[in-house]
Task: structure prediction
Amino acid sequence: MRLLEAIIDANHRAAAGDQNAGLHPDDFADELPVVALTCIDARLNRLFPAVLGVPEEKFIWLRNSGNIIFDPMSSMTRTLALACAIKDGREIAIIGHTDCLVCKTTTMQLLERFKELGVERQVLPDNINEFFGLFSSERQNVITSCDIVRRSPLIGPKIPVHGLLVDIETGKLEWIVNGYQAWGTMSDKWNEVVRSAGETVDKLKSLTDFNMGEMKFPETKIGETVTKAEDWLSQKIGALQTKPGEPSPVEAAPSPVTNIAAQVVHYAEKHWPKPSASSKPPPKIPLPPPIRVRANFPPRGKK
Ligand SMILES: [Zn+2]
Result:
């Protein structure tokens, strides 16, 4: 079980009333600290990091109004990048919350509030929604933010980017964007790109123009990707070399197809090495004492 899977599992058990639901941080030494971006809503102060069940020293907490990511190169994205590069953050979680006022406040209400604070309309930009990142769905905002962070060149392919929504009353978490799966999706896209390169040598050549440095893939999937790319290119090369009735390839000058295959494989192996056996430890039997996950606070409908 990976970090977020364990967090969600423990959180849901705690929400269901399991007093012993918890996490053993030692089991996830390679996946902590977690870097979290949440809203500034003060009601969240007592929820984190308890609802995640991670120790405070392994919880890097970033906040802004509405947990909004504006841009792949924005100041918040830069902070996330440094949190991983300098503070050793291993996984990112964008955590929205229910009943978010950034979501519930209308443009007119916001202008009214500003006016009360002495901020006149003319000093504000025309596109006030866009400027402040107002959104109409907490869920969609989390998805969008995750997407922007995932696409940021500042966030390396080794960092999973998850999206969560926390119930501000109960502390129960909903896992909206699975950062582990997003890796798989990117790997699939890569395979599509490789396949769609086409049937001919000319089209294969386009692989050399393709800027592979822009693609990000998970370590855990790259072994598979490399193998598939190798198989696919080998088949293409084989087909080209054994077509009956056609003149055999000129033997001088190395085959461009072989070169391309070698480049693809070399690049993939260099940038996304096959995972070592120790990179994904098997689930361990929990050892006491765990960090207790606290959910259901305050108990809804109970006193
Ligand atoms: Zn909020």
